[in-house]
Amino acid sequence: MKFIKSYPFPFDSDLIKKDCLGQSGVYLVKNNITNHSYVGSAVSKSDKHNRLFIRFRNHFFNTIKSSSIHLRRAIIKYGKHNFSFNILAFGLPDNIIGLESYYINKLQPEYNILQSAFNSSGYKHTEETKEKMKLNYSEERRRRIGNLNLNKQLSQETRKLLSDSMTLRHKSSEILLDSFKQTRSKPTSVYDLNGELLKQYKSAKEIQKDYSVDYRTIRRHLKNGKPINKLRIIIKYNL
User: Fold this and answer.
1) Among 35, 85, 127, 193, which is most buried by a count of CB atoms within 10 Å?
2) Assigned fold of 5-183
3) Are residues 103 and 88 in contact, defined by beta-carbon separation less than 8 angstroms?
4) What span, in angstroms and rounded, lies between the C-alpha atoms of 164 and 1?
């Protein structure tokens, strides 16, 4: 595996900070004893930001903030002197998640909890996150990425990496959305404030047909169990 940049222990923090300033990219933390690894990414939105350096610092000098509990435990067990910090790729901000997904799927890093930047089997996502994933491949976004790459000459290898990563992202997003569609409908009932059943619905979203209420409000009251006082109703999932 060739790295764009490789920083073995003892880490030269000043050099890493200088090399990564203003850069967005994908990195790999390697355990030199077990050869196990962790793949992550960071996006710097301006030349003054240094998110890659912050990720490096959090992994090795502020492990309580490390995003991977497996990596955190390994660094504590083996010691930071047995690890290296490596840059796999630099790229445009909008391409980083795709590149991260590509490398995770290619390398199968042992310390990554999620084995894809978009594979979250067993994890629950918010409604907002699901909607963003659904729109991730909109035509507008494709045009925006195209404009960012306008007049930029990319190598054949980089083009292939981006093509492969986009395919992986698309497949992973479809899997998540299909799973969400299968589980989102749940029978729900509406009661008055005295606990008398008013009506049963196939899903919470159907309540909007009879009541002027935002779906986010419905979800919130389903979660906290409190009545919607302005409508004088209580919403509960059917047991």
Assistant:
1) 85
2) GIY-YIG endonuclease (3.40.1440)
3) yes
4) 18
pLDDT in tens, 112-143: 987 655 543 434 444 554 555 555 545 555 66
Vertex 159, ends 156 and 163: CA angle to 5°? 140
Residue 35, phi then psi, degrees to nearest 5:
65, 10
DSSP 33-81: TT--EEEEEE--SSTT--HHHHHHHHHHH-GGG-S-HHHHHHHHHH-GG
Residue from 173, 38, 165 nearest 98 by CA: 165
Instruction: State pTM to two decimals.
Output: 0.52
The per-residue pLDDT for range 57-109, each reduced to its tens digit, is: 999 988 666 668 899 999 999 999 999 999 999 999 999 999 999 999 999 99
Answer whether 23's CB lies under 8 Å from 90's CB.
yes
Nearest in space to 219 (alpha carbons), one of 232, 228, 229: 228
Q: 36 pLDDT exceeds 70?
A: yes
Distance CA 157, CA 205 (A): 46
Q: Which of 55, 61, 54, 53 is nearest to 80 (CA)?
A: 61
**Intervals of CATH 3.40.1440.10 along the chain:** 5-183
CA dist 202 → 84, 185, 198, 199, 227 (Å)? 53, 7, 14, 10, 20
